[in-house]
Amino acid sequence: MNIRLRSVVPRTIPKAVVESSEVWERELVWEEGDSILVEATSGKGKSTLLHLLYGLFSDYTGECLLENLPPAKWNRSLVRSQTLSLLFQDLRLFNHLSARENLLLLPEIDETAPTIEEMSDRLEVNSLLDRPVQSLSFGQRQRFALMRCLRKPFRWLLLDEPFSHLDEQNARRASQLIEETLLRTGAGMILTALNSDGPLIGTKSFKL
Predict the structure, then answer these.
(1) Alpha carbons 121 and 148: distance in angstroms, whole number
(2) CA distances from 129 to 6, 133, 173 (A)
(3) What are phi and psi of 84, to 5 degrees?
(4) Cα 36 from Cα 127, distance rounded (Å)
(5) Dihedrals φ, ψ of 77, to 5°?
(6) Measured between alpha carbons, how far is residue 160 from residues 5, 85, 91, 136, 172 in Å?
(7) What pLDDT shows up at residue 32?
(8) Rounded CA gap, 136 and 146, in Å?
């Protein structure tokens, strides 16, 4: 399943940013299995790009196609439950629930994925599973939000600055878990990052 961008330009992005971009107003095809790194400083549209790909942002010109279909023709519930997995920059966890409860809310689980306990142990947050999310640091919440993304079925993993609040060691652990998941599933990934934000994993790199 490929992602195709045809001269896409969000109306909110300044013209000067568009002119220097390797993504906006370009013709791009990203194939399932590709690992795409999109680097940019703040304000150039990293979150906008992922929201656009997820079908949440429609104020743009050009075409964004998923296997040659625009978002208006998607079965959105099916696409979001089976095809796309998005880590939002604001994480979108339920703060009054525990981390474990947030993970158990997933309607669909990839049965081949490691268990909650295995993942949380890998990311060194196992002791925090039953604490309310509101009591956790942002970096701890970020790891649980990543776990939620990695435990659902997907063919494309969309990650919005997934290492932004992690120290070098925890970012490396998260990066390894992501890479193992992509190898196991054969899925594609689009990861956004600041220019010096954590492990810059990706086989293809673009400046936004």
Answers:
(1) 14
(2) 43, 9, 18
(3) -115, 140
(4) 33
(5) -65, -40
(6) 18, 11, 9, 20, 16
(7) 95
(8) 15
Say what the pLDDT of residue 98 is: 98
Residue spans of alpha helices (H) in 70-137? 76-78, 99-104, 116-122
Given a cut of 70, the residues of the chain with pLDDT beneath it are 196-202
Closest C-alpha to 192, from 160, 154, 146: 160
Dihedrals phi, psi of 60, to nearest 5 degrees: -150, 160
Q: Which of 85, 101, 97, 108 is nearest to 162 (CA)?
A: 85
CA pair distance 192, 206, nearest whole angstrom: 10
- Residue type present at position 91: L
82 CA to centre of own chain: 14
Q: Is 161 within 8 Å of 39 (Cβ atoms)?
A: no
What pTM was computed for the model? 0.95
Cα separation of 62 and 81, whole Å? Answer: 26
Say which residues have a Cβ less than 8 Å from residue 164's Cβ, sequence separation at least 6: 89, 142, 194, 197, 198
Distance of alpha carbon 18 from alpha carbon 62, whole angstroms: 13
Measured CA to CA, the distance from residue 71 to residue 205 in angstroms comes to 25
- State the DSSP code for 133: G
pLDDT of residue 199: 62
